[in-house]
Amino acid sequence: MPPTHSQLIHDRSRGSFRSVYSDLAREARHIDAAVDRIRLSGIDLAYEELASVQELRVLITEINAATLKFEAEAMLADPERSQNLRVVMRLLAEERLRVRCAPLLDWAPNFSVFVDGQGRCDLLLGVHWFQIPYPSRGPALAVVYRGGQADGVRARFQEMWDLAHDIGPALRGVFEAAERAT
Questions:
Q1: Which terminus of the chain faces fewer neighbouring Cβ atoms within 10 Å, N or C?
Q2: Predicted pLDDT of residue 16
Q3: pTM given for the model
Q4: Is 113 exposed, middle or buried (0-12, 13-18, 19+ CB in 10 A)?
């Protein structure tokens, strides 16, 4: 088994969740993320940070189209936040971002598996929130496990992915409607 090392991320650590996620994404060719629901306002990655990513698969348990459209409209109306949503829309259009919903599945906690060009897997386990402050008053914790057994988590992700339903076309429709409304 290859050696592993870990890194703890918390709401007061030097390296923020966003900076750690960005560093992992820059090295990755594939990212598999399992999160309980989409929080558009919490997404904050530049398109360039995902330049090496050929495939970004996001698995969610819960989605509300009306809430998503409202949040998308608010983001598009805000010049400082609109770019974050436009990155998501661009990745969907390029079919590099794929999103599926699995309402009958559940997992805890949220996680992302990053696979580099050599097939090495890193695991980010815990809170997936890019913005500061975090939405809770208590500690927000995540940990990165580099190498080791993360490939087993990716196999489990694949099992869940196979049971989920593609919502990419629906997301594109919601975002296009939000653009027309703004």
A1: N
A2: 78
A3: 0.91
A4: buried
